[in-house]
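Can't paste images in this forum, so I'm doing it all in text. The chain is below; anyone willing to post the predicted structure tokens underneath?
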Amino acid sequence: MDPWIWWIVAAGVLVILDLVTGGSLVLLMVGGGALAGGITAALGAPPALAFAVFAVVTVALLGVVRPVARRHLRQRPRARTGVDALVGAEAVVLEPVSGMDGRVKLGGEVWSARAYDGFSEFEVGQRVQVLQIEGATALVAA
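Text version of the structure:
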């Protein structure tokens, strides 16, 4: 079997191992180096050059790509702002809410509202939960 096939098989195995072991990205980067070594070998380069390409690409991936990738993977979810922050909030019915219209007090403001399912009705003073914001209308449910 040609040496480049072994390089490609090793790259695949390393990528799969990285995914199975929790994704520390080290094995993924080494797999990327093995893929580069395999491509080099497939182009007819001598084994020493294929190994050198493997080593250089692996070090480059570990030193440059992995820190950036880990930083992106660790980012906390962005804080919800604007109307997205209102989804899941509790509102108080000010005018009866039906599948057609109504009014609720939400986040200190008066919002137009409709029943989320289109047929429920909520009475004045009842507490409801906002499931979705559609334009300037809160879709609510009990």
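The chain has two domains: 3-74, 82-141. The radius of gyration is 28 Å.
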